[in-house]
UniProtKB/TrEMBL annotation:
The keyword Hydrolase applies. PROSITE patterns: NUDIX. PANTHER family: DIADENOSINE 5,5-P1,P4-TETRAPHOSPHATE PYROPHOSPHOHYDROLASE MUTT, NUDIX HYDROLASE DOMAIN-CONTAINING PROTEIN. InterPro entries: NUDIX_hydrolase-like_dom_sf, NUDIX_hydrolase_dom, Nudix_hydrolase_domain. It comes from Microbacterium lacticum. Keywords: Hydrolase. It comes from the Bacteria. Residues 1-155 form the Nudix hydrolase domain. GO terms for biological process: AMP biosynthetic process; ATP biosynthetic process. This is Putative NUDIX family NTP pyrophosphohydrolase. One of its GO terms (molecular function) is bis(5'-nucleosyl)-tetraphosphatase (asymmetrical) activity.
Length: 161
């Protein structure tokens, strides 16, 4: 069965009409020196039989960034399938009032054996930083399976005028 995830894509529109998205750089030693393809929207796995996709997206936002998902009107942007078969349902919300530093973000952590085959377990942040990026700047940086979400967001905002 395919892995199911849900996430939140916050966006903001500048006075000149340029759209930015809040994206997070993946944490841990594998991603440390990478930029392109090493960013993600805040998201995570969930069990659709036990939790709604939106509830899971808000929970994962809080777990990864250490702050609650902002209040607002969330809309389901769509479900996007990675080449691996993983499916990610993405929700969008206007994040213009969301400051990525107030309160300070406290990133969730995961444990893994590091260095490999050392027998030692270390903790690493799930993400190590977040940034507002224009959609054009974010596109090559996002993991490939999430890039269509940026295109869908741009289409919806353009249609809305």
């Amino acid at each position: 069965m395919a892995v199911t995830s849900a996430g939140i894509l916050l966006y903001r529109v500048a006075p000149d009409g340029e759209v930015s998205a809040l994206v997070a750089h993946l944490g841990g030693p594998f991603w440390a020196a990478k930029d392109d393809g090493a960013w993600s929207i805040p998201k995570g796995e969930y069990d659709p039989d036990a939790e709604s996709a939106l509830d899971a997206a808000k929970r994962e936002f809080h777990e990864e960034l250490g702050v609650p998902a902002p209040d607002g009107d969330y809309a389901e942007l769509g479900t996007f399938t990675y080449s691996s078969g993983k499916r990610v349902t993405v929700f969008v919300c206007d994040g213009a009032a969301f400051a990525a530093s107030d309160p300070p973000l406290v990133f969730g952590e995961f444990e893994m054996e590091w260095p490999p085959r050392s027998g030692r377990t270390r903790s690493f942040p799930e993400v190590d930083r977040v940034e507002w990026m224009t959609l054009d700047a974010a596109r090559p940086r996002l993991v490939a399976g999430q890039r269509p979400a940026l295109d869908r967001l741009a289409e919806l905002l353009a249609a809305a005028g």
